[in-house]
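Section 3.1: Structural characterization of target chains.
Under the original work plan, the team committed to producing a structural model for every single-chain target entering the pipeline before any wet-lab resources were allocated. The record below documents one such target. The sequence was received from the expression subgroup and is listed exactly as submitted; it comprises 290 residues.
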Amino acid sequence: MDYLIHILVLVCIFAVLTVSLDLLAGHMGSLSIAHAAFYGLGAYTSALIVTRIGAPFVIGVAAGTVVAAAISFIVSLPSLRLHDDYFVIATFGFQMILVSIFNNWMHVTRGPLGIPGIPQPVIFGWHISSHADFLILAFVFAAFAYFVVYRLTSSPFGRVLHAIREDEVFAQALGKNTLRFKVTAFAVSAALAAMAGSLYAHYITYIDPTSFTVMESILVISMVIIGGAGSTWGPLVGAVVLVTLPEALRFVGLPSNVAANLRQIFYGALLVVMMMFRPRGLAGRYSFGR
């Protein structure tokens, strides 16, 4: 039972990541490969504040989201002036820079040694220690992320994002400051990803740079593509599919190293099939194919 709840907690964490990336890739049409960087930024910020200063969990999460939003503002101002493949390359560069910082800033992040002993959350006297408690908390985080993205995308702000996706020049011709809208969307997306990272750090109680590499960003992108971009349920469907289905390999009886390789083959094959036969994903509104 605990194993099943553990999988559901991971689904909720990745649902937050996927819906936050979908705000950029699905609704605004800008594909970012830096999402794992903001995910890690939230995890490290929260872990450092809680373990070294003794701040409560809520303060750690808030600090992680604020730091990620601030960094995203610095990164997005030059990056979002680029378009299509150039924007992807810029976010990829930021992803590699931040992972390098996680690996080499030994005095702060402890590098490859990671940060152990991250305490489990305590919220207004509620000690979250069991898997069931974590599932409730993770569900609240996922519901909050969905609420934020839904409110943004169903408002006039969201309609401008959709206009930017379809034709940014036309949106500018209508008098919209498209850079301001894109920077704001990027900051919200980064803050939600950092929130997921904070929850992950306190759930696992240990983090190191290997959890926030470019492969993690590609996994989240795969969830958006397979679930479907720009829809309400697409990110959740993608998170469920790519978290639960590979876990079935654990019950086949294969050696762990073989099962790990098969997971990567599974991701790649599923992406190829979806892009060939259903580029809108399982429940998406927009297609990644041109």
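Residues 2-211 form one domain.
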